[in-house]
Design a protein that fits this description.
Length: about 70
């Protein structure tokens, strides 16, 4: 499985998905990289403008093997 970061921009209602913190930061430099890097994103994070959630990208092999059936 691969980690996926979901970014919601609350001011524009835009939703974007990223495969790394660096990609998220490069596309949204309003959030300083040093801030993103030190966050514990296991429970998600939000401020007045942004909400970040972490999920998993499931592949057919993940579903077939029953790794995430629950």
């Amino acid at each position: 499985m691969r980690k996926v970061l979901h970014l919601e921009n609350k001011t524009t209602s835009e939703h974007k998905y990223y495969g790394s913190l660096v990609a998220l930061w490069k596309d949204n430099e309003a959030i300083p990289y040093h801030t993103i890097k030190r966050l514990d994103l296991s429970s998600g994070w939000e401020n007045e403008t942004f909400k970040i959630r972490v999920g998993s990208l499931l592949t057919p092999a993940d579903v077939k093997d029953g790794k995430n059936n629950g």
